[in-house]
Specification:
heterotetramer, A alpha+beta, B mainly alpha, C mainly alpha, D mainly alpha, A: alpha+beta, Cytochrome Bc1 Complex, Chain D, domain 2, 3 domains, five-stranded mixed β-sheet, 33% helix, C: mainly alpha, 0% strand
Chain lengths: 317, 556, 186, 280
């Protein structure tokens, strides 16, 4: 199997089976570009130089103002080339859209401003782990606004839409890491909404999957792992760790056991139960004076992670 | 430029009368004027201002991207700034740019008419434009919107920035655009001077006609789209809102049904100006008059069939994608014809490099690049990779800025003597043209590269390890060169207004009707309506003692 | 043609053509009849053809109004062309979005994208869910039955009909109704 | 475009003839923009209908086709009379005040009022029954959630466990007579019972999803059309004033004609709108 190639002047590395096909078309069009650009520029510049007006009353030396032959030529030659490019492009597009039979399915959820990937065994992770040399099909949906899943090295991209499913598929060539971008503008942290595709060899993948891709690493305390999740799940965008600092949401400093009032005037005490609910179903209780802007993390945070987060929060005082 | 060879057979009077500028005094006489020339001038200065505003926003965007992380502003501010840049440049500068400013001034003159068909409607359209502009500025002071100029739902229906006000402003501006277009269509149909048949119309008029058709046919759809968006926010009608069972992709169909043809509202007038400049400054009949005239109309019609190429990865059906991609390649052809015909027109001409030509020739080069790179985006397979990256950004800036804006400034330099009866400093004009050309390329060529390497657009930030920084830096430096060129132009044009030497009636030796009347023209344009006996580009030929017989022979 | 010619050439049609009264009245009668026809024909069900038949009749009526009441027939040809051009673009506006939404699932179909499948799924979900909570739900019809459609959390598990309303465009996850906890107030 | 009603043709035209035909071309272009404006809503109609056939079938049956038909007849009649008004102007001799034009225009405007009256009846019925757009729709989960939230707030969440909620509420309210909790309870119960009634009144509509989409589009289309009716009325009113002054005669009747054209367009749109919403 081919290996990930180095990046060319125009294109990033070719890390998927489809990447080469895309680049071939790209190079073909690029050649056409060079040819036509040179023709036009040379013609123009040459004429300007040759027929430059020397004296003020110099007149044109030809009234050559139409030629069916020439005009016909530069209607049909470009048209022909365009049709070639069109057919080539469309065939390629079908390859990009239709995943091979028996591709591995991973369901993807996008939301402001995080990705989560759910495997058939139910585990949910925030970086994408895929096996090399095996077609992978992502079935994607969004929880809020439009997002777009883009891996330059794989040359794949598709918008992620609420209330509908879209898919992309790719077959990574070799183990390695590649960048995932969001390419549909989605607000404040649009440009921060990037993750990594971690391509593993078939064996590693199986092994890692069995013990959970993002389970707590051995020897790491739950609290420490919770701190990692705090930035990984991008809680950090809305919740500060400094005492009383207000971002979009309230600060986490001393949150455990905090007392206060909700929007509809009920008193609350932020015990484990309350915090768990606020993460899974944030709209149930909104702290007075804060916007209803937190997305639900139900289905994204499993119990271990939840415990870790709580453990981490308890250390914040 | 000797008068003798200009327009034989026309009755030409050189006795000076009070021109339209001094016809009446006082601010009110301008604000309430129905004179198409004065309205054109007022548009011109407003549009200079909006261009400056949009440009400032662009500079801020470039400056922010100079380094990764926060350079001068935070993400919220950045999102508002690039949104405002888009909105101002599209709705306030480039769409009204050539039609409303240059078109208003020149079109009736070119037709040998006393005014446009509906002068009061014309004035109304200007006032509406001002109102729309004020609303847009108000929204900006009110915090600004962060949706991007495309207003995609559901983001635009959920963000808590003053979207409604901004949408209303775009809605209002739409009316101004419709009225201008409507006015021009009727004017071109009904107000042509005796003998001025369709085949004797200057190609600028053909281009304006095509533009007007698009303005009238497409803009109402923008109107209803924005109304529906407002309804989403006010009443919560869920047509575009997935949370209510609506379809967000449908909004994109609605939006691009207008906004793709709008791209041609932007470029067609530029092409029109090009045809005038190329012929005048090579003193030669245009190559393939019919081909260019017809291709303008063809572009106007086909432009309504291709909007889906903005949506190849939007979750639109692959078959729709196929159809749109195919039609997109069809629309490439008419533009190709124009390009090659212009450069063929230069063949054996008598080419002067006066400043207007120094804006026209860059147009030829830059628009070629813009057009050619469009092929990547029209082809489905490559567009998947390039969509919503800086490659797209570079592409449409080459078409819009490198194309339309260049033609706009070329047109201004070309008709400036006619508008104000003053000359500008030729030397500095050439310097500025060259600087802008260089600065433009330094700014946008790197964006092609980082785009195809995967840098997404509308990004506030990029990681240092991604290797995009060097391109961003080159690009930012280029934007400063661009700025310098523009500033120089501002200075010498201003000084020409104050103390420019008097320009004669027809400084370039052009052949179309607007050069028949004095500079600046009298209030009613012509002492007597001219009777047209030949085509617009009948330049005398070396060795031949009579100009050949009008357009009838050309292109047939 | 110069505009001199252009307006002389149709002197005779503009203004000087007066449609006889009988035509106006005839057209009016025709319109009334056609209206009755539309309503009458709507009682029969021709399936998919319903819309087309209705549109056909409507188009006849519309053309009567346009050609006679609006004088398109005897007016300058240009006005007719203008209007026709407008209709052409309207048809384009219909054509492409329809092409899109009707062919979305052809390539690599995903279930739940076509509304039909959507509803079957939800109805099934409602049944399961009814079994589970039959007792509490006995007086709670509007929840059991409000077929509110959202993307299921995962195409594997059949989501019960969600009752947590969407908040600010964020479709809530489907959660089964506990009769004991009414929907939280938002 | 008031420059075109200046009786003596404006300076920049060759003659009144050219001016009139320009004005009419301008008007037709304007009508085209109106058509395209509405086409957007019709496209939305088609797409939403195609995406939700079941919902559409159920929801569209809730409109009153009788009122719709009557309105159609009213509009067609007004269209006819305005056409006659134009004709009357065409045949009118210079200077003479023509009762016919005035009469016909007045009748047309009366028809317009009639149309709006009937629309008002339809609207108020829809509003009362909560057949509305978006979350205002009577059975939209968010709407339902609010009602039940209010109920559980006033009566306590437990209320939903008892077999007969309505009865439980009654007793609770009876108990609460005079206390300050009473008002809230009463309001909550009213909303709740009203909603229950609606659910039983429109069973299928309550069960099928996204019913609000149909009514959203219904109100948008008819609303925008209604606005155009009002605009058309004001235009005709303005023409009427001119006619009363006897301004219009066989060589100058452009305002009557253009006003008529606009009114016909309003009719034209309704001719399509009526079967699409009320019948199919």
């Amino acid at each position: 199997m081919a290996n990930t190639s180095e990046s060319s002047f125009w294109m990033p590395p070719q890390a998927s089976t489809i990447a080469k096909e895309v680049d071939d078309l790209f190079d073909f069009i690029m050649d056409l570009n060079y040819i036509f650009f040179i023709i036009i520029t040379v013609m123009t510049v040459a004429f300007v130089v040759m027929y430059r007006r020397k004296s003020d009353d110099q007149l044109a030396t030809s009234d050559f103002d139409h030629s069916i032959l020439w005009e016909g030529a530069w209607v049909f030659v470009p048209l022909l080339l365009c049709l070639v490019v069109f057919v080539w492009g469309f065939r390629l597009f079908l390859n990009l859209s239709v995943a091979p039979e028996g591709s591995m399915e991973i369901s993807v959820t996008a939301q402001k401003w995080a990705w989560s990937f759910k495997y058939d065994d139910g585990q949910v992770v925030n970086d994408l782990y895929v096996p090399a040399n095996r077609p992978v099909k992502l079935i994607m949906k969004s929880r809020d606004v439009l997002h777009s899943f883009y891996v330059p090295d794989f040359r794949v991209k598709s918008d992620v839409i609420p209330n509908r499913y879209t898919t992309v598929w790719f077959e990574a060539l070799a183990p390695g890491e590649h960048r995932i971008y969001c390419t549909e503008y989605c607000g404040k942290d649009h440009s921060g909404m990037y993750r990594t595709v971690k391509v593993l060899s078939e064996e590693d993948f199986a092994a890692r999957k069995k013990k959970g891709f993002e389970g707590r690493p051995e020897g790491q305390s739950p609290a420490a792992w919770g701190k990692e999740l705090y930035s990984k799940l991008s809680c950090v965008t809305c919740h500060s760790l400094k005492e009383g600092e207000r971002r979009i949401g309230p600060s986490f400093w001393g949150i455990v056991g905090r007392e206060g009032e909700t929007e509809d005037g009920e008193k609350y005490i932020a015990n484990e139960e309350y915090i768990r609910e606020s993460i899974m179903n944030p709209m149930a209780k909104i702290v007075k004076g804060y916007p209803k802007s937190m997305p639900s993390f139900a289905g994204q945070v499993d119990d271990d992670q939840m415990d870790a987060i709580l453990a981490f929060m308890k250390t914040l005082k | 430029m000797s008068e003798t060879q200009a327009d034989p057979g026309y009755h030409v009077s050189d006795k000076k009368e009070t021109n339209y500028i001094h016809a009446s005094k006082g601010l009110l006489s301008w604000i309430l004027t129905v004179d198409h020339k004065r309205i054109g001038i007022m548009y011109l200065f407003t549009i200079f201002a909006t261009f400056a505003l949009g440009g400032l926003m662009a500079l801020l965007v470039r400056l922010e991207l100079l380094t990764p992380g926060e350079t001068i502003m935070g993400p919220e501010t950045y999102n508002r700034v690039f949104t405002l840049h888009g909105l101002v440049m599209v709705f306030l500068f480039i769409i009204p740019g050539i039609p409303a400013a240059l078109g208003n001034f020149v079109l009736p003159l070119m037709l040998g008419a006393k005014d446009v068909a509906f002068p009061k409607l014309n004035l109304a359209s200007f006032h509406i434009y001002i109102i729309g502009t004020i609303m847009a500025l108000w929204t900006t002071l009110d915090g600004g919107v962060d949706t991007g100029w495309t207003f995609y739902t559901p983001y635009s229906s959920t963000t808590n920035t003053p979207v409604i006000m901004m949408t209303l402003s775009a809605f209002v501006l739409g009316f101004s655009s419709i009225f201008t277009g409507l006015n021009f269509i009727v004017t071109i149909h009904k107000m042509r001077a005796p003998g001025l048949g369709w085949e004797r119309l200057p190609l600028f008029v053909w281009a304006m006609y095509a533009t007007a058709v698009i303005q009238v046919m497409a803009t109402p759809v923008l109107g209803i789209t924005l109304l529906l968006l407002i309804m989403e926010r006010v009443m919560g009608v869920g047509i575009f809102d997935p949370a209510l069972g609506g379809d967000p992709v449908l909004f994109q169909h609605f939006f691009w049904f207008y906004s793709h043809p709008a791209v041609y509202i932007m470029i067609l007038p530029g092409m029109g100006v090009m045809s005038e400049l190329i012929t005048t400054f090579s003193r030669k009949r245009i190559f393939g008059y019919r081909a260019i005239a017809v291709s303008s109309i063809a572009i106007a019609v086909i432009s309504f069939l291709v909007w889906g190429h903005h949506m190849f990865v939007s979750g639109q059906s692959a078959y729709a994608g196929m159809v749109f991609s195919f039609l997109t390649f069809l629309v490439a052809i008419p533009s190709a014809i124009k390009i090659i015909n212009w450069s063929t027109t230069l063949y054996k001409g008598s080419i002067s490099l006066d400043s207007p030509m120094l804006w026209a020739l860059p147009f030829l080069i830059l628009f070629t690049i813009g057009g050619l790179t469009g092929i990547f985006l029209g082809a489905l397979g490559t567009d998947v990779h390039l969509h919503d990256t800086y490659f797209v950004v570079a592409h449409f800036h080459y078409v819009m800025m490198g194309g339309t804006a260049m033609a706009f400034f070329g047109g201004i330099h070309y008709w400036w003597p006619k508008m104000f009866g003053k000359k500008y400093n030729e030397f500095w004009a050439r310097v500025s043209a060259v600087l802008v050309f260089l600065g433009f390329n330094i700014t946008f060529l790197p964006q092609f590269v980082m785009g195809s390497r995967g840098m997404p657009r509308r990004y506030y930030d990029y990681t240092p390890d991604s290797g995009y920084q060097i391109f961003h830096q080159i690009s930012t430096v280029g934007s400063w060169v661009l700025l310098l060129g523009m500033l120089i132009m501002l200075v010498y044009l201003a000084s020409s207004l104050r103390s420019g030497e008097v320009a004669e009636r027809n400084p370039w030796g052009a052949r179309s009707l607007e050069w028949l009347t004095q500079s600046p023209p009298i209030e009613h344009n012509f002492h007597e309506i001219p009777t047209v006996v030949e085509g617009p580009y009948e330049f005398p030929l070396a060795g031949a003692n009579t100009a050949s017989e009008g357009m009838d022979v050309s292109g047939s | 043609m110069s505009s001199h010619e252009s307006h002389e050439s149709h002197d005779h049609d503009h203004g000087h053509h007066v449609t006889p009264l009988i035509v106006y009245n005839g057209i009016f009668g025709g319109l009334l009849v056609l209206t009755v026809v539309t309503v009458w024909i709507a009682q029969f069900d021709f399936g998919a053809a319903n819309t087309f038949i209705a549109m056909f009749v409507a188009t006849i009526k519309a053309s009567l109004v346009a050609f006679f009441f609006m004088h398109l027939l005897h007016d300058e040809r240009l006005n007719l062309i203008t209007f026709g051009f407008g209709l052409l673009f309207v048809s384009l506006f219909f054509l492409f979005p329809l092409l899109d939404i009707t062919s979305r699932t052809y390539v690599d179909p995903i279930k739940d994208n076509s509304s039909g499948a959507k509803y079957e799924k939800v109805l099934k979900a409602q049944k399961d869910h009814e079994k589970k909570h039959a007792d509490q739900l006995s007086n709670f019809s509007m929840f059991r039955k409000s077929g509110f459609v959202l993307p299921s959390t995962d195409e594997k598990e059949a989501a019960p009909a969600p009752v947590v309303a969407p908040i600010e465009g964020t479709p809530a996850e489907g959660t089964p109704v506990e009769g004991t906890n009414p929907v939280p107030v938002q | 475009m008031s420059n075109i009603i200046i009786h003596k043709h404006a300076h920049h035209f060759y003659d009144a003839e050219q001016q009139a035909s320009s004005a009419k071309l301008g008007m037709w272009l304007f009508l085209v923009t109106e058509v395209l404006l509405f086409s957007g809503l019709f496209v939305a109609y088609t797409v939403i209908k195609t995406l939700n056939p079941e919902m559409w079938k159920v929801a569209s049956e809730q409109l009153n086709w009788v009122l719709g038909s009557v309105n159609t007849l009213v509009l067609i009649t007004s269209s006819w009379t305005v056409a006659l008004a134009v004709r009357a102007a065409q045949t009118n001799q210079k200077g003479e005040k023509n009762k016919q034009i005035v009469g016909l225009l007045v009748f047309t405007i009366v028809c317009a009022f009639g149309f709006l009256g009937i629309k008002y009846v339809e609207y108020s019925h829809k509003i009362h029954d909560g057949l509305l757009w978006g979350t205002s729709f009577f059975n939209h989960p968010e709407h339902v959630a609010q009602i039940n939230g209010a109920v559980s707030k006033a009566f306590g969440a437990g209320i939903f466990q008892v077999p007969d909620i309505a009865a439980a509420m009654k007793t609770a309210i009876a108990a609460a007579q005079g206390t300050d909790a009473y008002a809230a309870m009463d309001a909550a119960m009213h909303e709740w019972t009203h909603h229950q009634e609606l659910v039983h009144k429109y069973p299928e509509l309550a069960h099928v999803g996204d019913g609000h989409l149909f009514f959203g589009i219904y109100f948008l289309i008819t609303g925008l059309h209604g606005i155009h009716v009002v605009i058309g009325m004001s235009v005709l009113l303005w023409v009427l004033l001119g006619a009363m002054k006897g301004k219009f005669y066989k060589d100058y009747y452009t305002p009557v004609e253009l006003g008529g054209l606009y009114w016909h367009l309003v009719d034209l749109i309704w001719i399509y709108l009526f079967p699409l919403l009320y019948l199919v």
